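quick one before i forget lol
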Amino acid sequence: MRTQKRLASVVSLVLAVTALASCGGGGEREALEAMIRAATVDSGPGSCLKYETLHFLETMYRREGEAAVRACEESALDPRDKEPRSIDVSEIDIAGDSAAAVIGFEGSLMDGQKVRYGLVNREGKWKFDEMVGFVDLDAAHLVLELGREGLLRAETPREAENVSCWIGRMERMSDEALEELLLGDRDVSARCTAKSNAI
């Protein structure tokens, strides 16, 4: 639910929003769903480690330790970020201190998408730990939203050109390749060229 100023940050943020059939007790399920809903509306700098593990932040912002936390806090202060109008939490599956959940989003960069997350319980509090993957990915809509957001945040013609290049590549990808790009270790902040980014 947080974005940064470059396409890489926009793509990272696509991963940084927060669904689970119940296998745990009703109380745990309710606590987990309450945390997910709270994370949707509580998006200030103090929310970064409140609802997300350091591992989650490092994966989303592709930085380590304090640098990942600072990136999250800076992103949380960006007035251009849009929170979802609503979320739908489903398929909650709790197994001890681990859980999984699917979250559907209405509004924001993730509009129309469903995402499966891995969560962990740390000292009695549920936190997001990883983004597992998209559920029924609407690739065309996601790429459109990424393009709009990326171009709005581009600060130079060169950055806008790079965003357009990446969006063009994403449009030609299969759903599997697009998900791998967004969830994998590939650096989408790098210059988009035919030579270095052949798909």
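fyi The chain has a mean pLDDT of 84.
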